[in-house]
Amino acid sequence: MTAAQGQPVDGDDAGRPAGGDESVRGPLGGGDAAQARSAGTKAAPGRPAPHGASTQGAGTQAGGTQGDGGRADTVAAVVRQWQDVRPELDTGPVEIIGRVNRCAALLQQAEDAPLRRAGLSRAEFELLGALRRTGHELTPGELARETFSSGTAVTKRVRALTERGLVERRGDTRDRRVAHLSLSEAGRTLIDGVLPEQLAYESAVLAALDADRQDELAGLLSELLSRLEEYTRALRV
Fold first, then answer.
1. Residues 6 or more apart whose Cβ sits within 8 Å of residue 135
2. Which of 32, 84, 188, 199 is at 20 to 30 A from 138, Cα to Cα?
3. What residues does 169 pair with on adjacent strands?
4. If DSSP codes are grouped into helix, strand and coil, which group holds residue 181?
5. pTM for the whole thing?
6. Residue 89 in this model has a pLDDT that exceeds 90
7. pLDDT exceeds 60 at position 54
8. What distance in Å separates the CA atoms of residue 114 and residue 201, rounded to the nearest whole number?
9. Smallest Cα–Cα separation from 158: which of 143, 137, 175, 173?
10. What is the Cα 108 distance to its own chain's centre?
């Protein structure tokens, strides 16, 4: 999903494919958050090893080709490697975070095709999408919050999109330092044309899961996202 549908993306490289497994998976293969929980976690004497950990290493599992639960995707291979070299660690977080990161990277790479045809970076598309879905003018500061971007990045994107005639600026009558931004007719036409292509692609990808499983997955991701948002807000206090 995209910020036109509520997902934040920041940085001028946000629309570019991930450069490799290191950028997708992080140090442990599942992102830095996995490393924080995994480091130093051991099975207590006389108790089963933590989820995802194997006291003998993944290489001793049947056939040596599948990870915990019979999984055989690329993240499962990362988990097996860590279980081989550090069998005392709980690699459970990698099972989740690694797959979330990997799915996001693959989806973004594929979804960028419609944006390239439209001559947009992903970050520019997110900005246009924010103006379209909110349905009213936004200041640069409000756009930064809507897209979870820095003010500097928003200023750069707004300048480029304004020069292309996709975004219009209106000065504030009381404070000349404030600008009010909205989609031009061309910008609205462009975003309305590109978004259905994104949704069609996402529907095709998710078709591998039936409606009940999609609903279950959406619920789990919503719960995780809410907890993470609470956590990051607490860190800023």
1. none
2. 199
3. 181
4. strand
5. 0.60
6. yes
7. no
8. 10
9. 143
10. 8
Place of tokens 């996202």: 225
- What count of Cα atoms within 13 Å lies in the side-chain half-sphere of residue 220? 9
Residue type at 76? A
Residues 6+ apart with CB under 8 A from 26: 32, 34, 35, 97, 98, 101
Mean pLDDT, range 111-137, rounded to an integer: 89
Q: Rounded to an integer, what distance in angstroms lies between the CA atom of residue 48 and that of residue 90?
A: 11
C-alpha span between 207 and 195 (Å, rounded): 18
**Distance between CA 123 and CA 37 in Å, rounded?**
31
Calpha distance 192→194 (Å, rounded): 6
Number of H helices, E strands in the chain: 10, 2
- Give residue 64's region: left, alpha or beta (phi > 0; psi -120 to 50): left
Structural contact between residues 157 and 34, judged by C-beta atoms closer than 8 angstroms: no
- Determine the distance from the C-alpha atom of residue 133 to the mean position of all C-alpha atoms in its chain, rounded to a whole number: 19
Token pair for 79? 């988990």
